[in-house]
Amino acid sequence: MIFLDYAVYLAISMSKLILFSVYTDTDFSFSLFILNLASVLVLSSWTLLLKARTRRWILLSLLFLHSTLIVSDIWYYRYFEDLLSIILIADVPQMSSVGGGFLTLVAWKDLVFFADLLFFSSAFLYFRNKTGTPPRSSRTKFAGTLLGIGLIIFTAPLAWSFLQKEEWLVDNPISNMREYYELGFWGYHGADLLRGASSLVSHNELSSNQVDLLTETIPEIKAASIPEDLPNVIVVQLESFQSSVIDQTINGQELTPNLNKLKDETMYFPNFYHQTHEGRTSDAEFVTLTSLQPVKSGSVYTQYEEHDFDGLPAHLQDYGYDTAAMHAFERSFWNRDKIYQNIGFDRFYSKEDFSENKKIGLALNDKDFLSQSLSYTSELNRPFFAFMVALTSHTPYEFPEEHKKLDLSGYEDDLVKGYYHTIHYVDEAVGQMKNEMEENGLWEDSLVIFYGDHDSGLSKRGTELAKDAGADNIVALFELDHGVPLFIKPPGTKAGEINENVGGQIDIASTILDILDIEPPFMLGDSLLDEHDNMSVFRDGSFRFDDFYYKPDLTEPIGSGTCYSTQTYMKVAFENCEEKIDEASEQLRVSDLIIHENALEKIRHEQ
């Protein structure tokens, strides 16, 4: 009975972790249970050294902190299907402007994680006169025993993994969730904290293996002549625009009539995917403009804005392009003022350059934004590269009543209804922009691209959006969640075509340079117009290639997972995906190396 309060604390702590797996629909095996129990023992056994009354106050405080972190992880996981990281502190200032979207992640049922505080407080009163404090020598012996047991159980698997040279431990891990399954809840957060602290004080030089990897991967680009009559390039990123809405009809109404028609005179890519992670819109920009992968935690924009990425804008500058970015929000939001300059934009038109009297959601409505952005291109020297980031269809999809045109009777989810209304409005904005470009002569001879930045956040199984798409299995849900539209109109093109090549945002820059007949710098992506089958790799190690989709099993060693057919949506022989697993992992590791270590700059310095 003397340590009954601690036993209750352990039981409550483990119950929280089991409930966490239920809330997030993540695996909770017996081995993970033991690993979590060991880490709780390591972190809390020291409280047994304290006198009973003091210990119980400390345990109550630990339960509160535990609940706070778990609930925060749950909210984060609901949106990103990932866990919080210490480096996300850099992103906190960005959250205040988009807080409405995060409120949709909060549920009343989450309060159950704090209900234990009442239970333990009641037990606190009960224990007050029922137990005493044993001698210090007994407390020390018992605490030391539990600490030793916890350390042995926790470190033994790590030692085995290290001896086996498992990649998740001896190399930079490509997935937070794999670390969670290997280290447990507290082990993951402890390792993440140590890694964050280490990044503040260490500035490592590249190892010989890293240098060899990069020099083998990065080709030597010879000086190339500048092609004649280079066209203007206009790229428009559409907020939260999923490919599922293309050609979709609701109550007899087309959601995207203008984009549907655009397929008749552009190249349309139905097998195109976003590759964003926790940085969402900023990830989409980064992947598109640099042909690198996003980082596994947070955003490149807020963590590595001064690093060298050989961006598309900077490369186009070398060929005489005047480069400009347009984004009708605060200049400093997600460090765009710094990152845009670093990757090669000559000019940045932001909130202060656009009118503010017709906002929808976060910023100026897309019709006026795209129209005013086109007017700014008249200030640019020819040829120019204009990159426009639209914002109207941003979560939480609050749309003015006076602009609603769709009959959405039959729908109950206000978020889904708001999403459909905003998508329809943005489609009108694209149609208006095309008309204006035809009138001012930009459409015919320019390279014009429209693409979606990421999913809507409404694509989970059972949502009205998923039901509309008929998505009720793993592959269909993947297609719904990751599929975004891509329209490419090369200069002088009048007839449209459907290009079935598999591709992702990482391929856009290479495709642009291919159309312009410009030799690319180092890029992980490939042209969508070449004769090779491209592979679209995602941050968790999954990928889409040919007619297959590979989903890794993060609870098992790297290389374990399931291969699916994208034609039948059924499981197929693992051999269909096996040979591409290492290639996908290497792409993520090379990208991480370039980003974290500013490796491109270091390689140039070495040379």
UniProtKB/TrEMBL annotation:
<dbReference type="InterPro" id="IPR012160">
    <property type="entry name" value="LtaS-like"/>
</dbReference>
<dbReference type="InterPro" id="IPR017850">
    <property type="entry name" value="Alkaline_phosphatase_core_sf"/>
</dbReference>
<keyword id="KW-1133">Transmembrane helix</keyword>
<dbReference type="GO" id="GO:0016740">
    <property type="term" value="F:transferase activity"/>
</dbReference>
<feature type="transmembrane region" description="Helical">
    <location>
        <begin position="30"/>
        <end position="50"/>
    </location>
</feature>
<keyword id="KW-0808">Transferase</keyword>
<dbReference type="InterPro" id="IPR050448">
    <property type="entry name" value="OpgB/LTA_synthase_biosynth"/>
</dbReference>
<feature type="transmembrane region" description="Helical">
    <location>
        <begin position="142"/>
        <end position="163"/>
    </location>
</feature>
<dbReference type="InterPro" id="IPR000917">
    <property type="entry name" value="Sulfatase_N"/>
</dbReference>
<feature type="transmembrane region" description="Helical">
    <location>
        <begin position="97"/>
        <end position="121"/>
    </location>
</feature>
<comment type="pathway">
    <text>Cell wall biogenesis; lipoteichoic acid biosynthesis.</text>
</comment>
<feature type="transmembrane region" description="Helical">
    <location>
        <begin position="7"/>
        <end position="24"/>
    </location>
</feature>
<keyword id="KW-1003">Cell membrane</keyword>
<feature type="transmembrane region" description="Helical">
    <location>
        <begin position="57"/>
        <end position="77"/>
    </location>
</feature>
<protein>
    <submittedName>
        <fullName>LTA synthase family protein</fullName>
        <ecNumber>2.7.8.-</ecNumber>
    </submittedName>
</protein>
<keyword id="KW-0472">Membrane</keyword>
<dbReference type="Pfam" id="PF00884">
    <property type="entry name" value="Sulfatase"/>
</dbReference>
<feature type="domain" description="Sulfatase N-terminal">
    <location>
        <begin position="231"/>
        <end position="518"/>
    </location>
</feature>
<keyword id="KW-0812">Transmembrane</keyword>
<comment type="similarity">
    <text>Belongs to the LTA synthase family.</text>
</comment>
